[in-house]
Design a protein that fits this description.
Oligomer: single chain
Number of strands: 21
Number of helices: 7
Order of helices and strands: HEEEEEEEHEEEEEEEEHHHHEEEEEHE
Structural class: alpha+beta
Distance between the termini: 118 Å
Helix content: 25-40%
Largest sheet: 6 strands, antiparallel
Strand content: 25-35%
Shape: flat
């Protein structure tokens, strides 16, 4: 009986040792795999963390046109372009500083960091800003961190709104001579402005005379949150600028004819000549190149409805003109066989061919 018990104890002891050895062997044999799995897990965690941080970065184009390339230098193939003020998501940064970006349409590529202003705000804040800035195709062209430009109201009454278009609610009215600070400039010609008392709102920039200035230049006027609203969102119905814009819009659909200046057909400079002469009593030069000396220069980022914009049509000189009408659009008489039409100023063809702009009134 004792022999049996001894044998049983010995067997259990041997089995325990064997199992113990087996467990150790298992631990050793799978140790490398376990370590690898842990590293992969850490790597994946880091990748996810990096991705979240990177996708919270938004870049805004500061050049008139910024090439998107297949790789992080100018030696790589060009695969597209971005217009001034356009927003993109920055997903990573190459060792030479170039940004890997993704556009709203899903295009992925690389751009030079010299012409992309990158913010590091949180993703949810960016999403909020994107929703605000892309309302009806509108986006912020420039933000002023301090007051360096001011605008003087040039019409009898100008509506102050909660956002950069007439679809936003009215906050009040600004009267002629009121001086406000420029906070943001939008692609459709609207501005976010700051009043002397600190109140902010958005106005149509067509009715501000913009000059350099500081916060000390802000001038209080009578501002009312009630009262009769002017026709066409704070504009004066007799405004020459608005009359010219209305005139050019009425010509859409009429045929292009070389040398024609209305009323039934137009070439490019004939269209702008006709509208300014008949709607505002202003006689422009007759050719597109000559019209580029009329009025005063304005930068592309400061375009307002009614401004004339000029293109080179693939040559080394001005060959074409159209009229900017806001929201990134212009109206022109394109070429023989076509009719007066709206065009996207920020399409690749017109970004490439853009030369300059002139303001005829104001």
């Amino acid at each position: 009986m004792s022999n049996i018990m001894f044998t049983e104890k010995k067997t259990k002891s041997t089995l325990s040792k064997a199992l113990a050895l087996g467990m150790v062997a298992t631990s050793v044999s799978f140790g490398a795999q376990t370590a690898t799995a842990d590293a992969a897990k850490i790597e994946n965690t880091n990748t996810t963390s990096t991705y979240k941080t990177q996708t919270s970065k938004t870049g805004i184009v500061t050049a008139y046109a910024l090439n998107i390339r297949k790789g992080p230098s100018t030696s790589y193939e060009r695969i597209g372009s971005l217009a001034e003020g356009q927003k993109v998501t920055v997903t990573s940064t190459a060792s030479n500083g170039w940004y890997k970006i993704k556009t709203s349409s899903g295009k992925v590529g690389y751009v030079s960091p010299k012409y992309l202003k990158v913010s590091t705000t949180e993703a949810d804040k960016d999403d909020k800003d994107d929703n605000e800035n892309t309302h009806k195709g509108t986006y912020v062209v420039k933000t002023y961190t301090k007051i360096s430009k001011v605008g003087r109201v040039s019409v009898s009454s100008l509506n102050l709104r909660t956002g950069p278009s007439t679809s936003y609610s009215k906050k009040g009215s600004l009267h002629k001579g009121y001086v406000v600070g420029i906070v943001k400039q939008y692609s459709n010609g609207w501005y976010e402005v700051k009043l002397k008392g600190g109140k902010k709102g958005c106005v149509d920039g067509s009715y501000l005379k913009i000059t350099s200035g500081t916060s000390s230049d802000l001038k209080n006027g009578s501002s009312s949150s009630t009262g009769k609203e002017d026709n066409n969102d704070g504009t004066v119905s007799s405004s020459k600028v608005q009359a010219v814009i209305n005139m050019v819009k009425r010509q859409v659909g009429k045929p292009y004819v070389y040398g024609a200046a209305g009323p039934n057909s137009f070439d490019c400079s004939g269209l702008t000549y006709y509208c300014y002469k008949n709607a505002a009593g202003i006689t422009l030069n007759r050719s597109s190149a000559a019209q580029a000396s009329n009025g005063r220069y304005v930068s592309k980022s400061e375009l307002k409805p009614g401004d004339l914009i000029f293109f080179n049509s693939g040559t080394n000189r001005i060959r074409h003109v159209g009229m900017y009408v806001g929201n990134g659009q212009f109206i022109h008489a394109p070429s023989p066989g076509k009719s007066v039409k709206y065009e996207n100023l920020y399409s690749s063809y017109y970004v490439k061919g853009y030369v300059t702009a002139r303001r005829i009134i104001g």
